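As a warm-up, study this chain.
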Amino acid sequence: MRFFQPTTIDDHFKAFWSKIKTEVERFPQDQIVSADAEELSSQFAEKYKVECPVLGTDISYDAPPFSAETRYTVVAVHVPYSGCGDMFRCHGRSSPVMEVDADITPSFLVIRFRIDTTRVHDLPAEVQGTIKRINEGLNSINDSIKHLNPDLKTKAKFYISERKAQFAGHSRLLENLQKTGFNLRLRDDGSERIIVPVKPKQIKIAQAQSAKSPQNYELSLADYDAILQVIRDMMTVCERSPSAFTNMVEEHLRTVLLVALNGMFKGDATAETFNGAGKTDILIKVNGNNIFIAECLIWDGQEHFKKKLTEQLFTYSTWHDSKLAAIVFNRKKNFSASVEKMRETAAGLDNVVAPMSYGVPNGCRHKLRRTDDPQKEFLLTCLAFEVPA
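Now compare it with the structure written out below.
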């Protein structure tokens, strides 16, 4: 590899500036408006600050393997370091040109030296010479870091102030529009239900007593249906803005649903009731137990759907779970056929107890039993949505 290539330390920090700006723009309006710019910018500076690597002296090596070639061999030397390993791929105002057979790990530089087996005593000098040249490059980087790290706070504070000013300007615009005497037109097409309410609905968690578990938390059927209704409403909005969702993978579609759900509901202890675990789960946890899990997936046939249910959704669930959901995104043609196959697959599961009444044209609901405890039953609701391809 080439040490101190291919990025300049300035460009490395410019990438941080871009990340900070993006994060600031993602903050909700109320959080940015009420935020202390000094405190928030300090948090960003702490998050992105860079520590220049410092090489350690406790150098070790790997014993070279046996080779019939007795004249030359390769010795892998491990040089410990602390700090940011990315800096070995950056250069400051000046840097040595170093083409070295080496790898950068989180804690060590692994440098391979080809040595003459009759002159092993030359290895320490060669290692120290390489270390000296690396330190020369790090010294130049460290000189730049001394002023680039403080700049992180300055940049963050500028972006925060800029965002505050944008929201203030929009607020003035709305105030001026109110003074025109015209009435604000409200949506009446059903989409207004997914707009974040002034006071989010609180999900009530019931604690049912049982002989098997003294703390068996359950999600009420009313809240279960309310959650699924928000998902349906949000996907209706997606259908009305197809261009915005064309390139979204299932993880991004899940995030859209999380935003809507956390805007509509709140829990007892946290601002965000709904969380994302892994790439596809939407879940609610109470005292470490999942009481609601939804698995999101792109429709790819009945066998794929069945595996998602039996090998993922049912595997993630625990004895405490009583309400599960499968959210299917269909990007193939013939949506009606996909819905019917989804229903056939759900109804044909080995652990189905009985179908449940669920008057949704693109969904179905069944009562199932746990495979590891046939006496424990739970509800599974499957919903399919057509998303633009």
